[in-house]
Automatic annotation (TrEMBL):
InterPro entries: YdjM-like (IPR007404). It comes from the Bacteria. It comes from Alkalithermobacter thermoalcaliphilus JW-YL-7 = DSM 7308. The chain crosses the membrane at residues 61-78, 85-101, 107-127, 148-165, 185-206, 218-242. The keyword Transmembrane applies. PANTHER family: INNER MEMBRANE PROTEIN YBCI-RELATED. Keywords: Membrane, Transmembrane, Transmembrane helix. This is Inner membrane protein.
Length: 245
């Protein structure tokens, strides 16, 4: 499902849970709900959360400038070694083609995302921030290199997020942060991606088999229609619950 659909489902699920359990949803917890609703897709370098951290236009521009820089360096080195300009241009042309086959935009983007969060980890460690915050940054930094819809889309991933959020909850002195954050994260999997055609490996790493309970193809016209209908159904359930309680 699309990022905005995951956010909507995550928020509505937590509002519904708040109505049923009578546990208030604070503004801080609401922020974590929004983040956790798209957090499982952090293993995708072009996810909603990744795009907030590093806009695709920025990474594409950096990639283009890097290719230009490599091209200039190669040509400069060849010119220093050999004075034959035509020969140097031909050799540099083939070298750049070779570089572009190995260094693509996706690889550079993942590297930049990892670099940003590694720097953040060291910064947090330097200021003696709680370990739970450092663990979150490490996880987000490593995630782009993981297989899409692997660990982050499993029960093990849900358990990991609950553990980290529970530690954060104690630090921020929040009552229900771990509950709502984990619920929002789980909604991404169990109320979202499991109904797509691709499915999710819910029992990873015990089994890599992806379980699917639906047929929605993300991005298709039919898929977009069902996502809108899906969100409207959740809205209806929430309004109906408000009348009952």
């Amino acid at each position: 499902m699309k990022g905005k659909t995951h956010v909507a489902v995550g928020i509505l699920s937590c509002i519904q849970a708040s109505i049923i359990t009578n546990k208030p949803l604070s503004p801080l917890e609401f922020i974590f709900v929004c983040i956790c609703s798209v957090l499982p897709d952090i293993d995708e370098p072009n996810s909603t959360l990744s795009n907030l951290v590093l806009k695709p236009s920025v990474s594409k521009a950096l990639y283009r400038y890097l290719i230009y820089l490599i091209n200039m360096l190669v040509l400069s080195i060849l010119t220093y070694i050999n004075k034959n300009l035509l020969f140097n241009l031909i050799i540099s042309f083939f070298i750049i083609i070779l570089v572009e086959t190995k260094l693509n935009h996706s690889f550079l983007r993942k590297s930049l995302l990892t670099f940003l969060f590694v720097v953040l980890c060291f910064s947090l460690y330097y200021v003696k921030a709680p370990n739970s915050f450092i663990i979150i940054c490490m996880f987000i930094g490593i995630a782009p290199w993981l297989k899409h819809r692997g660990f982050t889309h499993s029960i093990l991933g849900i358990a990991f997020i609950y553990y980290v959020l529970y530690e954060v909850q104690k630090i921020l002195n929040s009552d229900n942060l771990a509950f709502y954050g984990t619920l929002s994260y789980a909604s991404h999997l169990l109320l979202g991606d499991i109904f797509t055609k691709m499915g999710i490996p819910i029992f990873y790493p015990i089994s890599n088999k992806k379980i699917s309970l639906g047929f929605i193809k993300v991005g298709s016209a039919i898929g977009n229609f069902f996502e809108i209908l899906y969100v409207l159904i959740f809205v209806g359930i929430v309004f109906y619950s408000l009348k009952l309680f």
